[in-house]
């Protein structure tokens, strides 16, 4: 009988969450580098290099890859010959480890979990509770797969029960474009097939814990129907032309992972869950000999080149431009922003709407300002702010008429906007700029000052005023209503990844 001490288990959970907050796994680094090398779309290639540069910066600086440090999902297999030296339940130990990791003084992680989800939605302050799945198996070890799942990718999960005669591939190819770019492609798609409704979803989530190995599979050839499906979906999803960040390009998924399970003869449950470009997960085992030992990735894995501003980039000072100047900006233009921006996410927008409905004075003046949709990580040491990448912009779409009434000049976020939002942007002679999701630490280096100016009780969703210097963004919707997320995938659709991938 192997005895597992609670302190070893709790510390291993905590260490693993710290580890995945700033280390990408080697398989992801290799796959993203390969995709970057093969990419022919200039905006997508630039976005991938920002993601890779950010990844290396985070590994060196031990700061989060993404400002959304995720909700914790844990799959635990407990051997039947294991005894616990603990007076806590497994879930209680997991949550203690989560709390310890997210409140770490040297690398605090953003707490995003809220209680009373259908009501007051109060932040739990330490990112607990985790989503914990426990299985009892043969053996004398405890096996743990742990992930920190970002909200942008989790929100794009899809589920269906098909008729047994219907096509899994057709359904997935229909859903991927509908998911948009809020999940921060390129990433990994998890697919669960079979079982029941809840089993299919679990299979899709668990599949995301598997290593990226699609190139090895393509080279050796499939040995099963599931492996055939993986290759077919990988090829056909990438042929959709969505590309990195939805900018159009050759790579939308780095891999497709599939797990299946027997199901009822009348059913074909199918679930898909994407993992974003942060793709944070790690596996470890405990055998009674102490806490888990996690080995950092080799720093030589990243490409030698790193992101830097291109010669054709436009330098923009936000306090020195007029609405007339926005007419010169075109979709696809790369900009370096300097000056002051305001931040606001869902909760701040909702609070603004409430104050307006009560005819109360707003604490912030929005006239001629740009709003950055972001919820940053807390700063440490000499930082102005922690990692501060964009959140999904279309969650704020229904607030756009209100914000334009208040005089907002433009907005900054990630991924596409809906048709009504595009109409509002065009009607108000405004623009929408996008920053790269998955490059949060890189973006934070452009922020030279940060102060909370409204709603401090909202925590990371408070309104900040950032002063930025050379913050990289791209014009994603211009004053004419042209949208890169609508137009670019059409250009890149059905273009193949070049054969050099297989050399």
Key phrases:
14 helices, 24% strand, 60s Ribosomal Protein L30, Chain: A, alpha/beta, globular, fumarase, 503 residues, single chain, 5-stranded mixed beta barrel
Q: Please state the CA-atom Rg, rounded to the nearest Å.
A: 23 Å
The side-by-side strand order for the widest beta sheet comes to 14-15-16-17-19
Instruction: Characterize the biggest β-sheet.
Output: 5 strands, mixed, barrel
**Category from helices, strands and their pairing:** alpha/beta
* Mean of all residue-level pLDDT scores: 96
The CATH H-level superfamily of the largest domain is: Fe-S hydro-lyase, tartrate dehydratase beta-type, catalytic domain
Helical run tally: 14
> What form results from the Cα inertia axes?
globular
Task: Report the top-level CATH class of the largest domain.
Answer: Alpha Beta
Second rung of CATH, namely the architecture of the largest domain: Alpha-Beta Barrel
Q: What is the β-strand count? A: 19
pLDDT under 50 segments (min length 5)?
A: 499-503
Distance between the termini: 49 Å
* Helix content bin: 25-40%
Number of domains: 3
Strand-residue fraction?
A: 15-25%
CATH fold assignment of the largest domain: fumarase
What would you note in describing this structure?
This protein is an alpha/beta fold and 503 residues long. The chain folds into three domains: 1-146 and 292-308, no CATH class; 151-277, 60s Ribosomal Protein L30, Chain: A (2-Layer Sandwich), CATH 3.30.1330; 314-489, fumarase (Alpha-Beta Barrel). The chain contains 14 helices and 19 strands. It has helices at residues 6-22, 26-38, 42-61, 90-102, 151-154, 168-179, 197-207, 214-220, 225-238, 346-357, 400-405, 419-427, 440-444, 484-492; strands at residues 2-5, 71-79, 82-85, 114-115, 122-123, 131-137, 142-149, 158-162, 187-194, 253-261, 268-275, 280-286, 314-317, 334-343, 370-372, 410-413, 431-434, 447-454, 463-477. Helix 10 links the parallel strand 14 and strand 15. The longest helix has 20 residues, at 42-61. The model is unreliable at 499-503 (pLDDT under 50).
